[in-house]
Amino acid sequence: MLKGRGTAWAIAHRFEKDAREAVDDGWGALDQIADEQRLAPDTTVIEEHCRRILSTNDSPDISFDVAINPYRGCEHGCIYCFARPTHSYLNMSPGLDFETRIIAKVNAAERLREQLAKPGYEASCINIGSATDGYQPIERKLGITRAIIEVLAETRHGFAIVTKSSGVERDLDLVGEMGRAGLAAVYMSLTTLDSHLSRVMEPRAAAPHRRLRTIETLARAGVHVGVSASPMIPFINEPELEHILAAARDAGASSAFSTVVRLPWEVNPLFQQWLEAHFPDRAARVMARVRDMRGGKDYDATFGTRMRGTGLWAQMLRDRFNLAVTRLGFNRERIAMDMTQFVRPAPPARIRPADVAEADHRQGSLF
């Protein structure tokens, strides 16, 4: 275990061709490796100039069609994060690398403006942060998410943010104005009210009480705020479901949704190791219940059931959720945004080779 990190395991990704094993060389190398592993590594940011920033979704389980992910990887280090396996495509570990080696799409706002300016673009709500958190700690320095929202605010384009960070309050000037115009919504992921559990389950995310305060701040500013009580992990945070929903409603959230834990690809061994490290007394019970919801398997990726599970226990959890949201008066309808307000931006100016040559000539004449 590493302080401030979800996992210490740099698990090999599924495309790895080579297997590595530490060998004692007689000079204390294994002891040195063990000492190094006890030190939490710093976050490394790798800049990327992306070719496009909008991605489309074809899953019927997800309520949005278009998404923006300003980063790849996430410093929050949530052990259960379904997006961890995406680092495999970068030849990086879905374990420790996912939360310590962050890809920052530094030209995201520029690419967004280009795509919105295309004549054939049709506006639909854009989700910010479907496979990463746009307000993870590095955002305070880089401001990529804010630059994206500035473009969306300028073009009056509706968007929704999913986060477990209070960093969204920094952009209240933009998010608040868009929210009051019916063009922005924020969904706060609130997995537990227990600060100790939050610290070991999602070590660099905002504390639960801080997220509740952010819900209150956004709601008072006129922003629609929903709560995502996700993911529900049997015998870990699942007993808190009703308390989480009630606390969010008291803070000002007006809608809610919930999903069950998903363990695709490398998330499965990472999660099971975490269970054994932090909850050895119930690790077997947790996995037995997970398999109850997945037809006897650790994970089932079938559309329509992968987010909610199947079987009696999954149905009981859905019934509990439905009863709670009804009792608390949560809005069950999807928030509709007025996309007729969208104003297409002017296409970026094209630079001709002759203009570049002329600029170079002028610059050269100064020296």
From TrEMBL:
InterPro entries: Elp3/MiaA/NifB-like_rSAM, MJ0683-like, rSAM, rSAM_sf. Residues 58-297 form the Radical SAM core domain. Keywords: Iron, Iron-sulfur, Metal-binding. PROSITE patterns: RADICAL_SAM. The keyword Nucleus does not apply. The keyword Metal-binding applies. SMART domains: Elp3 (SM00729). One of its GO terms (molecular function) is metal ion binding. NCBIfam families: rSAM_PA0069 (NF033668). This is PA0069 family radical SAM protein.
